Amino acid sequence: MGPEVSGDSAGPRVRRLLLACGGTGGHVTPAIALAQRWAARGNASLLAISAKAIDGQFSSCYPDLEFIALPGRGFSLKIGPLCRALGGALRSFGICLRLIRSRSIAGVVAFGGFTSLGPCLAAFLLRRPIFLFEANRRPGKAIRFLSPLARRVYVPATLKDSPPFRFRKRFVAMDHPLRSDFIPCSRSKARERLCLPRQGKLLLVMGGSQGAQVLVRWVDGLEERLAAEEWHCVCLTGPGGLDRRVFRRGPSGRFFCLCHWPFCSSMHLLLSAADLAVCRAGAGTVAELTACATPAVLVPYPFAAHDHQTCNALAMERMGAALHWPQDRLGELWGRIGDLCRSGGRETLRENLLALRPALAGAAERLAAAVHGDLGP
């Protein structure tokens, strides 16, 4: 069954994509970026997300896009969780079979994670083209498993040159797409819109879309030192995390705020407002830091699949665009931040980020154009 024809049979076809993207913000946000550009081309898409709370928070911010929550969960080698994961994947597969037929889906674009399996297997059975997008500099398990079925795999340029498995000819270099509403702005404007203090240095601490308790605890241990050294701080605690704002008086007599927020839907503002970020090293986070030219200390999640966050962090450090810091040395990090600020290292990081930023401009349109071309006539 081919894609539907819009209104007038002589007019252009509306090509419908199923975007499999649930599980983390790093999967959902590039899919949203593609969906926005796909719609601008007069086409339509359906974004398949997971039932996680973080996916629901993202989808609620984009009422103009269509989302569907698929069953499923991450895979595990333990018998009970593995059986539940396989059961969820099987239900997702059945739902996607019906969706692809009933919606005349022209192709599936998968962004990794456990939600990719059902849609891609359904597309393979129905002979719809499959496209994969890998944002990290080391591919995840889903991308590795599904790449033999894919017509094209869009990857960072550094990965295209040395894919860790065969199907090399299917790899196409692609920068990370950013949502159309992700527009960096000046520090003063960002702080005004977020109701943050206009004056003083701002430290942003975040563990990705799902939070990181180890980073939250690190901030909790720094409350007095942040005030003593006159830093404001915003710490993103993740879904269900602490939500509060407290004030401390600094040596100058001014008050400095410490904010704990579970979630922020305006990351372009928060990153623009920050003087320095301490955060995980997912590909989406790295791209957004680059777009806002926000100097950062990247603390990779040590248990990420294939240690891909460390690969991302080390790549940024080699380019002089971020500082890599292992999680097991968090106790020494505040001293390193002080050295970085005193030596002018923050300004150097920002300059190098500004040099990298032009590569992200238009990435969403390039991805949409590539998918459109690879779909064929």
**Runs with pLDDT <50, length 5+?**
1-10
Task: Please tell me the CATH architecture of the largest domain by its name.
Answer: 3-Layer(aba) Sandwich
Tell me, rounded to a whole number, the average pLDDT. 89
Count the E strands: 14
State the domain count.
2
Measured as a percent range, the helix fraction is: 40-55%
Largest sheet: 7 strands, parallel
The helix/strand order is EHEHEHEHEHEHEHEHHEEEHEHEHEHHH
Q: Label the structural class.
A: alpha/beta
N/C terminus separation: 14 Å
Q: Give the CATH level 1 class of the largest domain.
A: Alpha Beta
CATH superfamily of the largest domain: Glycogen Phosphorylase B
Strand order of the largest sheet: 3-2-1-4-5-6-7
- Enter the CATH topology name of the largest domain: Rossmann fold
- The helix count comes to 15
What is the CA-atom radius of gyration, in angstroms? Answer: 21 Å
Strand content: 15-25%
What does this structure look like?
- The chain has helices at residues 25-40, 53-60, 79-102, 117-125, 141-146, 157-160, 187-194, 213-220, 223-228, 267-273, 283-292, 308-318, 333-342, 345-356, 363-375; strands spanning 16-20, 44-49, 66-69, 105-110, 130-133, 152-155, 171-173, 201-206, 231-236, 244-249, 255-261, 276-279, 296-298, 323-324.
- With 377 residues, the chain is an alpha/beta fold.
- It folds into two domains: 16-177 and 362-375, 3-Layer(aba) Sandwich (Rossmann fold), CATH 3.40.50.2000; 187-359, Glycogen Phosphorylase B (Rossmann fold), CATH 3.40.50.2000.
- A seven-stranded parallel sheet has the order 3-2-1-4-5-6-7, sandwiched between helices. Strands 10-11-9-8-12-13-14 form a seven-stranded mixed sheet, with helices on both faces.
